[in-house]
Structure formats: structure tokens, C-alpha cells
Amino acid sequence: MPKLKNSKAVLVVDIGNSQIKVGLIKDQKLIRFLKTDTSLDLGRRLFKEQLIKKFQNINIEGSIIGSVVPEKTLFFNNFIKDHFGISPYLISSKTKLNFCISKNVAVNEIGNDLLALACYCANLKAKDVIGFSFGTASVGIYLKNKELIGGIIAPGIHSSVNCLIQKAHLLKKIEFNLFSHLTIGYDSKTAIESGLFHMRLGLIFSFSQFIKKNYSIRQTKVIVTGGNATDFQMKMIQYDGSAILFGYKIIYDLNH
Prior knowledge:
Blueprint: E1 10-15, E2 19-26, E3 29-37, H1 45-54, E4 62-67, H2 70-84, E5 89-90, E6 100-101, H3 112-122, E7 128-134, E8 137-144, E9 147-155, H4 157-167, H5 188-214, E10 221-225, E11 237-239, H6 243-254
Parallel strand pairs: 1-4, 4-5, 6-9, 7-10, 10-11
Antiparallel strand pairs: 1-2, 2-3, 7-8, 8-9
């Protein structure tokens, strides 16, 4: 985890296409955390009660909302104002970042979540950093000397599995472990689980190798996060399931 400058207790909301994550970060630690599906009706009384209960009895000094689903942003913006008396920081074109963006990159097509991931990567000491977020889509980005050079987008794990199940009738009744570390399978279930493991790992290795070759570098730091990510337990790959939350915290610090 990169070092964070501000020791305030900050409520961070990460609204993704599939999941919403709400975390309270203080003194470089994620001290409270709540996760739900983005498809959930946020106006339900039960969810509001869960939010209040999870983050009550603590002095919340600031908040930031990062979102790729605009219609969900309004709910959290109003909720945090009403219940915690804080106006959350919302990312805009004027937001200060700790990295620059290559002129070849379409700035207006970069989602808040990737800005946060890039901030997390730029806050590390490494010169060359590759960040992967495995969520609704599988996304990789490359930063060189704190400059976002570009990235890749591939279908997400869930969408790939769902597409396969829809096309293969005999697979419809099989439940899969999407986070299995099987290197080889011995039946349909384990073979698919192994395939999903290699899909992620193969994407990481392929992108990393081409970056090394094309930019004439010997070593890169690789960060992996996202709701469909897994800890590969490999020295060259650093897993941090909260990287995007901490990235948003970095953005908050830079703009306060």
C-alpha cells in the first residue's frame, strides 16, 4: 500500500458497474468496509440502516465519491450530506492528480476508477508500474515515470463465464469457483476454473512482457485489484483488493 499523507478519517465510496464499495480510511488503514451489488435498490431502508450502523460512532472528517455509474452518485452524495454533515468531493476535469496523462490517451474516456488505480500506482516508488483491475471488464494500465501511457481492456471474468454457460447447455448446472488457483483441470468444472485462473494470469504476463519489450525495461511492478481479482501469491504480482479505495483517498488528499 502506498503511503498516504493525510491522517484524517475519510469516507471513500467506489461505485463500479458491478459492485459498490464503501470504506473508511484513517492513518493509512482501511478501518471499516461495506460492499454491495450496484444493482441493489439503494433507497431501501435496510441498506441505509446498514450504512449508518457500519460508519456510526466515529468522527468522519471528509469524504470522496468515485463513480462510473452517475445515477448512483446522487444517492451517496445526498446520504453523506444528510447523515454525516459532509459534502463529498466529486472528481471533475479540475481534479489534481499525482500523475500526468500521455497526449495519446483519450482523457475523457478514463473512468474515475482508473484514475484512482493510476493514482495508487503513481504513489509507489517504482519507475514502471502496471496496474490491473479485474471487475466488470479486465483492465490493465501502464505508468512510466508517473505518466499514464495507455492500457488494455478485455472481457471480465463474470461476462466470459456467463457467455460460456449460455452457449454450453451441459454447463448450466455447474457452480464454479471463480477464484480457484488450479493450474490444470480434470473435469468440466475444474478445467473451467483453471481456465479462468490462466485467463487472468495470461493477461498479466502477456501485457507485462510486451511493455518490457516495447519500452526496453527490465522490470515492472505489477499491481492487481478488483472484485474478480485474486492473490496469485507470486513475487512479481502484488495483490491489493483495496487499491482503488486507497487511490481515491490519494485524490482526496491532493485536493484538500
